[in-house]
Amino acid sequence: MTQLEQARNGIITEEMKECAHAEGVSPEFIRDGVARGEIVIVRNKNHLKVRPLAIGKGLRTKVNANLGTSQDRVDIELELKKVSVCVEAKADAIMDLSTGGNIREIRKKIIEHSPLVVGTVPIYQAAIEILAAGKAIRDMEADDIFRVIEEHGQDGVDFITVHCGVTKRSVGALSEQGRLLGIVSRGGSILANWMACTGRENPLYEEYDRLLEIAKRYDMVLSLGDGLRPGCLADASDRAQIQELVTLGELAKRAKAAGVQVMIEGPGHVPLKEIEANILMEKTLCEGAPFYVLGPLPTDIAPGYDHIACAIGGALAGAAGADFLCYVTPSEHLRLPTLDDVRDGVIAARIAAHIADLAKGIPGARTKDDLMARYRRDFNWDGQVEVSIDPVKARMLLEKTKAGNEEGCSMCGDLCAIKLNQSASAPRAGK
Hints:
Elements (H helix, E strand, L loop, with lengths): L2 H6 L5 H10 L3 H10 L2 E4 L10 E4 L5 E6 L8 H13 L4 E4 L6 H11 L3 E4 L1 H11 L9 H14 L3 E4 L5 H10 L8 H13 L4 H4 L1 H11 L2 E4 L14 H19 L4 E5 L5 H14 L5 E4 L11 H15 L3 E3 L12 H22 L6 H11 L3 H7 L3 H7 L19 H9 L6
Parallel strand pairs: 3-4, 3-10, 4-5, 5-6, 6-7, 7-8, 8-9, 9-10
Antiparallel strand pairs: 1-2
Helix pairs in contact: 2-3, 4-5, 4-15, 6-7, 7-11, 8-12, 13-14, 14-15, 16-17, 17-18
């Protein structure tokens, strides 16, 4: 049985116990959330060396980091280094989005190297293999797509993005309303192109039961992708995006009925004032399924600083109920990320996730914040560094003043507010 089926039968699995311990909640809390479809336990049956990850309502907001090769840059050693950077920066999951080189071999090496759960987007491999054979996207058949999905399950992929909501109806809504930037999702554009060329319905939608059978075989979580997500503020919350979300809600219900765990992917580029509404809409239409947001980015004009824009949007999304944040790096929209870009992206997303947890009142979320206040009061620099989200950078930037007996930093010196306050509060001689 899958984790979902066992949860519905009242069984608390070892994975549920392990996740409960990691989250600081009871195993019954995890079991109940999984049974309702509000929590997913991410771990493929063929990937038992990895620690299971629980994502969903009442749990710490998780962070995913994307990596992978491109046709212009195939360097598996660099990608493995990125995995290590993700682990050191404390990401919760990684996704291999490779589109260059031997994609299956790259995926296997990443899975072998990663102590974190791994996600993929199978349609990339299916399309690349068709093109490599000298054919066009329109020549791809349903069997090509499902064969690749089966491979990903066999290889131990823990969760897969599948763009099942890119249908004739949702693409039609896009065409009728019009968009400034069109379709920006690679997976969404592949399927929309295939549908336009063949005149046929999306196989991932039309043969959804076939997808469910594969996912159930490996207890692989389906991440129902937002192939029609907005790529700019002007396209946010349009008919195509909403129609796709309505379809994903229907498909999520079918997945849960079949015993398959499912989460929903969300936008994209969204104005700040619309983020909360997008979260609430997903939670309503998808019956509380965990929400995995790609950003969201509340501005389009921050190339080089998109990780900051993402952190702003992600904090608000998480506070409104999003469960899983996909990082964005400083190089988003510009190039493949470097090792430093990956690290900066993970840290920024973790800051957003932590702010969200504080807003949601996740048990234990404020513990380190209160410790930080005490350590600052006591001029305990080692303590301050230890509880910071990025201890490496905090220690690197720390500069204590000799004049203040190393109590203050170089910003304030003798005018340190905490030091002056403590001096004023101290009892005077003879009093």
